[in-house]
Amino acid sequence: MAKRTKIKLKHGRELELMRAACHTASQILQEVAAFIAPGKTTLEVDQFAGELMKARGCRSAFLGYRGFPAFTCISLNEEVVHGIGNQRMIQPGDIVSLDVGIVQNGWIGDNALTVPVGEISLETKRLLAATEQSLYDAISFARAGLRLADLCGAVEAHVKPLGFSVVREFVGHGVGRDLHEEPQVPNYRPQGKTPILEPGMTLAIEPMVNAGVAYVKILADGWTVVTEDRKPSAHFEHTVLITDGEPEILTDRPRTALPEQLGI
Ligand code: MG
Fold first, then answer.
1. Dist CA 85 CA 37 (whole Å)
2. Cα 110 to ligand 1 centroid, rounded to whole Å
3. Ligand 1 midpoint to CA 91 (Å)
4. Which tens digit of pLDDT belongs to each residue from 68-108?
5. Which pTM does this prediction carry?
6. Cβ–Cβ under 8 Å, residues 26 and 252
7. Domains plus CATH for the chain?
8. What are 202's strand-pairing partners?
9. Helices (H) and strands (E) in the chain, counts
10. pLDDT digits (tens, 9 = 90+) for 132-143
11. CA 160–ligand 1 middle distance (angstroms)
12. Ligand 1 centroid from CA 175, angstroms
């Protein structure tokens, strides 16, 4: 971790705008998740998301970011993150990781979830449940006075004993006016001293958890991250505000991957 980090704190009017942007991001994520179905292409899903953004008067935080060519990131099965909508058709048994980041009045909301399509394998159900739970475990450490490392460590601490692995090359991040602000939020306990969490910090916490090995590769499109062993990967993300008390999940939504919801 960097020795000195410039973490931007949000208060007052800034925070109200950030809350609103995160609420919009959450609404769009849930609407697009509900649109996912067998027979649709990932391009159709991405275009649907683009229409929703336009209708709500916001724009994608990803489109054009370092040249990223789509409204959302849509990553199927062995794809971890940064998948680009294309002609690939969604099939029963797939999992679709959907990452929606939007800009509204200059402020960004960033969130993601992995959607099961039809009946998925037991191992994949376990993967989804573990990944979503690890996000909420990490959020339980999103409290003023705790170290960032405690929050980060909670993800791996949950999934590793279950036989899963966390991606190390891609991490969560501070978020606000910029998509990627300080600090980095890895899904494992980082080495060295990490910042003490303070009220006003807004963090995108985003476990990326693999069923098999932690190693990943980037496809020839320069974006799509896949697991090296091509086993499935899941991704759940919230933008979270550190307060004086309970963590505030700015992109809050109903949970979707509780074991009882997945029938395990
Ligand atoms: Mg993010």
1. 14
2. 6
3. 26
4. 999 999 999 999 999 999 999 999 999 999 999 999 999 99
5. 0.97
6. yes
7. 13-256 (3.90.230.10)
8. 241
9. 5, 15
10. 999 999 999 999
11. 22
12. 8
